[in-house]
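LAB NOTEBOOK - FOLDING QUEUE
OPERATOR: T.R.
BATCH SIZE: 2
PURPOSE: Compare the predicted structure-token outputs for two unrelated chains run back to back under identical settings.
PRIORITY: normal
REVIEWER: second-year student, initials M.K.

ITEM 1
FIELD SEQUENCE / FIELD STRUCTURE:
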Amino acid sequence: MSGWPSRSILASHLPPGNSSMPHDAREFPGPFILDACSVICLEAAGILRRVLAILPGDCLIASSVVAEAQWVYSWPAEDGSRHQVAIDLQAHVSDGLLKVVTPQTEAEAERFVQLAGPVMDDGEAMSTAIALHRGATLVTDERIATNYCRSEGIACLSSLDMVQAWALHDQASDDEIVRALTGIAQRARYRPPRSHALFEWWTRYVDG
């Protein structure tokens, strides 16, 4: 599992005050719960199924996220037009790569209600509440959710962490990495902020 994110990148996402650096991803808090933005980005990159297969732990998705992560854009046609392409999450569920979850305890339900609406959308809120109470790692690109995770000591990774992990794990070629990241930019319409730990890595492949 040496192909997972570097120790410096993992360290940037550990809860504050946690000085125990995992030796590899198998020691990173699991299970993993994916927010809608990360599902959409990984699907747009064309690697969602592969990431689910190589993550070293169960992969969870909140029921409200299933309702939100419905589609990505197609690659643009010659005339620049594009259309919506459905995300088939059920195939991953049927194959045992993804498990749909809902709040199971009163504490999870109360935290979900607390976060939903004024703070986060339903998918973010449910994913964050479940991550907090089950000791899961949240995979999200949403700033509010990421900041909340850090303040509450919840382990948090981003879509780009997952892409880099896939690239290193599978020894992806430069062309494969460019296509994956370009897919995120064009089919999910996402670009990381300059403050992102992997912004320079992204820029090297997408804008270089």
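ITEM 2
FIELD SEQUENCE / FIELD STRUCTURE:
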Amino acid sequence: MTHCTACEERDEKIRQLERELYAEAYWAPVELGLSLTHNAMLGMLVRYSLPVAHETMWECTRGPQTLLIDYDPIVMKVQMCRLRQKLAPHGLQIETIRGFGWRLHDDSRARLLNWNERRAA
């Protein structure tokens, strides 16, 4: 393996990790009317069945250029409240894990992952 190939592989791995961290892999159904911030938050919840920590959710909404901004729990609670308001009319639920973070209800995750198939039926 040449040095150039090793660098290219490393750069690709970094891009994959950034996509994973910043929830670029998931796009919410357009019917939900989510902002980019709420899409990133929902993406984290859809992709992980385990609870997502407050700080992790903060990082996924900030992007790589603004990670130095201090975590603000009030901002995250307000954003989560607004996301829940947008999801509620569609019967989608986010659970609070007290003192830790949030997780998407299992039924809500399944519905979101199968949204397009359900819509076509």
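REVIEWER COMMENT (ITEM 2): The longest helix spans residues 3-21.
FOLLOW-UP: none requested
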